[in-house]
Specification:
It is an enzyme of class 3 (hydrolase). By secondary structure, the protein is α/β, with parallel strands linked by helices. It has 8 helices and 10 strands. It has a single domain, classed as Rossmann fold (3-Layer(aba) Sandwich).
Length: 260
């Protein structure tokens, strides 16, 4: 994996947004996989600034979801479809037609998960998939001990993940117990994986992902198997890395034209 240590979340957002902008410039109809939560917001803000400033045309770009809650009513403000529309699609000036994801309110959720997996392949595959990481090392909603070959499916959230996500709801009781998530095997099919982690609370998970063994107990460690995976971390999230100085030196020695 390529490890990039940045000063803070804003710098990480700008770096990743620049890589996404380069991709869209090179491939205007690129399929961008987006993640939700607070961590990727600096990326979306930096992208939107590029669009508003006329430096980037995303009119032909496509966007797809990483995961979705099961059981929230259509249009619920904390459904991930609503979140992506609010934080990504509208700020970038895209239309809802450019965006697709699984329907967590579908009558047959298991069939919906399979259909979404097929839809990603039919769309030509994801060109760049953004990822966050949980304090327990999960990516998407692939909780610890998920199969490293798993496909898009229904997953039951751990109590810790529900507690972590409760800040977006009025109470813990409102956080759904189930989700549809791209599986680890599905995620690994994206052409470029970019994981952003910020804050000291993510330091142990980042260290286990980057420097620990490949293990289903740390689902994000599956990124070690990918030919083009980039992990961008701020200094706090990098605090557990034994090879932090090496990673800093490696990135600093890159030619100026070489992007992540």
């Amino acid at each position: 994996m390529e490890i990039v240590i940045v000063p803070d979340a804003a710098a990480g957002g700008e770096l990743i947004a620049s890589a996404m902008a380069e991709l869209v410039t090179r491939k205007p109809d690129a399929l961008l996989g987006v993640a939700t939560g607070s961590t990727p917001l600096p990326i979306y803000q930096a992208l939107a600034a590029k669009v508003r400033g006329g430096a980037l045309d995303v009119s032909r770009a496509r966007v797809c979801q990483l995961d979705e809650y099961v059981g929230l009513p259509t249009g619920h403000p904390e459904s991930y479809r609503s979140v992506v529309l609010r934080e990504v699609i509208e700020p970038l000036g895209l239309t809802e037609a450019s965006f697709f994801g699984p329907d967590g309110a579908a009558e047959d959720v298991a069939a919906e998960a399979i259909a979404y997996d097929h839809a990603l392949a039919a769309a030509g595959g994801v060109d760049l998939q953004l990822l966050g990481i949980g304090t327990d090392g999960h990516i998407g909603f692939n909780e610890p001990c998920s199969s490293l070959a798993s496909r898009t499916r229904i997953k039951t959230l751990t109590q810790q993940t529900r507690v972590d996500n409760a800040r977006f709801f009025d109470s813990l009781d409102e956080v759904p117990h189930h989700v549809i998530t791209q599986g680890i095997g599905t995620i690994l099919e994206a052409r470029h994986l970019v994981l952003l982690a910020t804050g000291e609370a993510k330091a142990d998970a980042v260290a286990a992902t980057v420097e620990g063994p490949l293990s289903a107990l740390v689902p994000a460690s599956a990124l070690q198997l990918h030919p083009h995976a980039t992990v961008v971390v701020d200094e706090a999230a990098a605090s557990g890395l034994k090879l932090a100085d090496y990673f800093r030196a490696t990135y600093a020695a890159k030619p100026a034209w070489q992007s992540i």
